[in-house]
Design a protein that fits this description.
By secondary structure, this protein is an alpha/beta fold. The protein has 3 domains: about 1-75, Orthogonal Bundle (Arc Repressor Mutant, subunit A); about 105-125 and about 370-475, Aspartate Aminotransferase, domain 1 (Alpha-Beta Complex); about 130-370, Aspartate Aminotransferase, domain 2 (3-Layer(aba) Sandwich), CATH 3.40.640. It is about 45% helix and about 15% strand. It is built from 15 helices and 14 strands. The strands form 4 sheets. It has a 7-stranded mixed β-sheet, with helices on both faces. Strands 11-14-13 form a 3-stranded antiparallel β-sheet, covered by helices on one side. A two-stranded antiparallel ribbon has the order 1-2. A hairpin with a 3-residue loop joins β1 (about 65-70) and β2 (about 75). It is globular and about 75 Å long. GO terms for molecular function: DNA binding; DNA-binding transcription factor activity; pyridoxal phosphate binding; transaminase activity. This is GntR family transcriptional regulator. Its cofactor is pyridoxal 5'-phosphate. In the C-terminal section; belongs to the class-I pyridoxal-phosphate-dependent aminotransferase family.
Length: about 475
């Protein structure tokens, strides 16, 4: 019975994703108004799905006014569905956008508010800014021609050699420079991997919930997203194996250490088993590890990369969020067979992360001051987390207290509609992340992500109190 229910759910998900794929291509301008859409047979072959699934997607397009039918001819794009950004003065600027890009997280974070609970970044006042500013001069003294030089695409050789030593000391990993690619932040790494390894309607496994910008990147590539629930105890590995057998996913994107948005950490035993499953079913594990050093008591388990012997893990280790966010330094680690195709994508994206940023990061990160900074930062973050938890005690909201990271994943009462609550909070200069944008199924309407890392302690208390008061008033309506 459970298998039948699962199969029905998967079919519904597939037909909906086929619909989303077609709509995205229309909105990107690939199919214009009154253009004929591919035949059901042709699109089914292209997407490697059943013709009935494509037929259901086309029927939904027709019902929603996205397409119309010409008898004995096929389906055509309805007027008013292609989205182009047109200049206010078209006569002087005739070039229009070919479509649209979506980043739900950025749309919320770009709204200026006083209480910024949507930013999973470090409060700039917690960073050693004076030391960093002094260090800039030293770096330019050491590298007087720095501003007139490009980095190579793979990354500054000196930095890559240091990172190899760092991963050896931290995780006992034997790496060479050819195993690394330096990117301009973790999000660029996800985007490059998506461009290289995901084709339209490729099945991929993604945690539910997950990092919302990653979801937007995967949707932009036309991926067929298959959700995997993550809980306080990790994953249901029997279900993961069943999904790998059934769908043969290209990748499994995961954030197993201080997971965004939940704060969960996948236990050590599961990490080894997941690598074994990836090897068995030829699924590339994309391990996103953005805040590994931000633990409160005990360090987290070793990355899955440490269990990988056959090249089925690509590891994204970002240092942007807690070292110096303005430098945007991240490293992608994997076998040369995985990294080499990414080099071409990186060369097309920006031809290499700025060399100035890499040199500044290198000389700061290997310093004793950096180690002292990390210790102080962990204490400050734990204090801020405890302040928020203390202020939320009387709300009736529920959460699992994380052992590290920047966020609380909060379950609100069903009677509190989060979308309206967010709008009300924005008007009161408070922002947070609604759970629905972190959910591949777009169903988690009673959850929110609250980041405690970006606001100072005084504003943290007053901001959470205001948030709770707004929720209480809004629930009464």
């Amino acid at each position: 019975m459970k298998q039948e229910e699962s199969s029905t759910k998967d079919t519904k998900l597939l037909f909906r994703q086929a619909y989303d794929y077609i709509v995205t291509r229309i909105e990107l301008g690939e199919w214009q108004t009154h253009d004929k859409l591919p035949s059901i047979r042709m699109l089914a072959q292209e997407l490697r799905i059943h013709r009935l699934t494509v037929f259901r997607a086309y029927q939904m397009l027709k019902q929603n006014g996205k397409a119309y039918v010409k008898e004995k001819s096929g389906y055509y794009v309805s007027p008013g569905n292609t989205q182009q950004v047109i200049s206010e003065h078209p006569e002087s600027h005739p070039v229009t956008s070919s479509g649209f890009l979506k980043n739900s997280l950025a749309e919320i974070q770009q709204v200026p508010v006083v209480y910024q609970f949507s930013q999973a970044l470090i409060d700039p006042n917690l960073l050693p800014n004076l030391y960093l500013s002094e260090y800039v001069k030293q770096v330019f003294d050491d590298y007087p021609k720095l501003m007139g030089t490009y980095s190579n695409v793979q990354g500054d050789e000196e930095l890559c050699e240091f990172l190899c030593r760092y991963m050896k000391e931290s995780h006992n990993l034997q790496l060479s420079v050819s195993d690394l690619l330096v990117t301009t932040g973790g999000q660029q790494a996800i985007d490059l991997i998506s461009r290289v390894y995901i084709r339209p309607m490729d099945p991929i496994l993604v945690e539910r919930p997950t990092y919302s910008s990653a979801l937007d990147i995967f949707r932009q590539q036309g991926a067929r997203i298959i959700p995997v629930d993550i809980t306080l105890g990790g994953y249901d590995l029997e279900k993961v194996e069943m999904l790998m057998i059934q769908h043969r996913p290209r990748i499994f994107y995961m954030n197993p250490t201080f997971h965004n948005p939940t704060g969960y950490t996948v236990p050590k035993a599961q990490r080894k088993q997941l690598v074994e499953l990836a090897e068995r079913y030829h699924c590339l594990l994309v391990e996103d590890d953005a805040i590994h050093e931000m633990y409160f008591d005990e360090p987290p388990p070793e990355p899955m990369l440490t269990y990988d012997t056959n090249g089925w893990v690509v590891y994204i280790r970002s240092f942007s969020k807690y070292v110096a966010p303005g430098l945007r330094i991240c490293v992608v680690i994997g076998r040369p067979s995985v990294i080499t195709p990414l080099l071409t994508a990186k060369s097309l994206a920006d031809n290499g992360t700025p060399l100035v940023n890499q040199k500044l990061f290198l000389h700061y990160f290997e310093s004793e001051r950096m180690r002292q900074h990390l210790k102080k930062l962990r204490i400050a973050l734990q204090v801020r987390k405890e302040i928020v938890e203390e202020e939320l005690k009387t709300t009736g909201w529920t959460w699992d207290s994380p052992k590290g990271g920047f966020n609380l994943w909060l379950k609100l009462p069903e009677t509190l509609p989060v979308e309206g609550f967010l709008n009300e909070c924005m008007e009161q200069s408070i922002s947070f992340i609604p759970g629905i944008i972190c959910d591949p199924l777009r169903e988690m309407r009673s959850w929110i992500r609250l980041s405690y890392s970006f606001i100072n302690e005084e504003h943290l208390r007053s901001g959470v109190r205001r948030l709770a008061n707004i929720a209480e008033r809004y629930s009464v309506r």
